[in-house]
Design a protein that fits this description.
Length: about 290
């Protein structure tokens, strides 16, 4: 049986202890934001809030990992494992998948056949659930070709939702127009905010939510509704939660899920990575779920 090493990006937001336990090689995410370097704060989100407090108009620039970044991780894992399985950020929002594919061509011919690449069509906690599924499949002793096929069938079964506080960061990144951002600000004053979800790898609206200041409550009700059929038929649900420096809301969502719903396993709570976080902003709350 071949041993299989996993490569993914920091964008999956896996807790460090999981990365270490499963010997995952992570490709760094890239955020260029010099103005943040001198500001106080324990993380990027706190620094972003400090920018606002000081009235500094500045926005970060993100870039995809280069093929050399992926190549270095492939070579590292090839030294430790027989085969390498790479799971990337959605190709609809990033060029990471293309970098990962091109990096494979830079390997020696005899090593190219050892590397297999899967597009998660997701990000943050959604991407993480694909990685956790891969860990399960590797542990089961399946061949890497079987694992890739099962992961490709599994990817559409991961459901991820995001709610953010302020559209200014999305607007600055070019994801939404100034007009749309102003409409969203007006709705927020009335307690209405959009819920976003991933569909075929793209981040799209999933509806407007009232009483949206209770972010954890809104997301819990979405989880409860979406998993009802699975739970009634005895299905087991795996869930992951990520946040933009809002651990209280994240923990609140976890407690509601574990207290109110049966057969829910919360795999982890983690802070959102810098690349995704620079677009969604502070106090973002996100969760993803799948059947296991």
């Amino acid at each position: 049986m071949d041993s299989i090493g996993i490569v993914t990006e920091e964008a999956a937001d896996l807790p460090p202890e999981m990365v270490e336990e499963h010997q995952i090689a992570t490709v760094l995410v890239i955020l260029n934001w010099p103005e943040l370097e001198e500001l106080p704060g324990e993380n990027t989100f706190q620094k972003m809030m400090e920018l606002e407090r000081q009235g500094i108009k500045s926005f970060g620039k993100t870039s995809q990992p280069s093929p050399k970044d992926f190549l270095a991780k492939y070579l590292y894992q090839i030294e430790r494992f027989d085969k390498v399985l790479c799971i990337t950020l959605t190709s609809r929002l990033s060029g990471s998948y293309n970098s990962a594919v091109f990096a494979k061509t830079l390997l020696a011919p005899e090593e190219q056949g050892k590397v297999f690449i899967v597009d998660s069509l997701n990000a943050s906690c959604g991407q993480a659930l694909v990685v956790l599924k891969a860990i399960d499949l590797v542990s089961s002793g399946k061949r890497v070709e079987e694992i890739v096929k099962e992961l490709e069938e599994f990817v559409p079964q991961v459901h991820a939702f995001v709610m953010f506080e302020d559209p200014k960061w999305l607007e600055a990144s070019g994801r939404i127009s100034h007009i749309v951002a102003n409409v969203m600000r007006g709705m927020a004053k009335m307690g209405i905010r959009p819920l976003l979800t991933f569909k075929k790898g793209a981040l799209v609206p999933a509806g407007l939510k009232t009483k949206a200041r209770d972010t954890a409550g809104v997301l819990f009700r979405q989880l409860e509704k979406d998993t009802e059929r699975s739970r009634k038929t005895g299905g087991r649900i795996r869930m992951a939660i990520t946040h933009g420096d809002d651990p209280e809301e994240a923990q609140g969502l976890r407690e509601m899920a574990e207290r109110e719903l049966e057969n829910i396993e919360v795999a982890f709570i983690s802070i959102i990575n810098d690349v995704v976080g620079s677009v969604t902003g502070p106090n973002t709350l996100s969760f993803a779920w799948c059947e296991i």
